[in-house]
Amino acid sequence: MRFIPHIVWRIFIQNWYQLSKDFDLLKVHTFHSYIDRYVLYRIQSIHSGNRTTIRHTKTNMENETKLTLIKIIHTLIWVFFNFVIFYMLYAAIANKLDSWLWIGYGFVFIESITLLTFKLHCPLNLLARKYSNSQKDNFDIYLPSWLAKYTKSIYTSIFAIIFIITIYQILN
Description:
Blueprint lengths: L3 H11 L1 H7 L8 H18 L6 H39 L5 H19 L5 H6 L16 H27 L1
Helix pairs in contact: 4-5, 4-7
């Protein structure tokens, strides 16, 4: 057990050139994770007798980073549409038929066209499938699984209510 730190240090020094070639300096926030995975991977390959490279680990880390970025963007878009939908609900109930309500209808229309174009799937969902094999409903967004699964049904129902209230307010 006392030779393990020496072995890890020796592996790290011997492979520093390869590590520096593979390491992308723009991903400084993943440096510690990268080093930990690299050392663990090299120790495992030495124990199994393989002289393999770290390309699989780097590819997995790049996929995780890209998936995380997609999840963040997807969640921010979801939050934005929550503000839009709930402002529209407030505006319809309060009979505040201003330009922001109609801009909200425009955003919902654009979102609807986008979903119809991609067969009721968000394009970010399809993009995230490239980086994950997960079958979970929330693999591409930071939401609880039940909410990710029923988001379209919930917000379509809320939008239908908004539309009915808006028509009622216009007619009165």
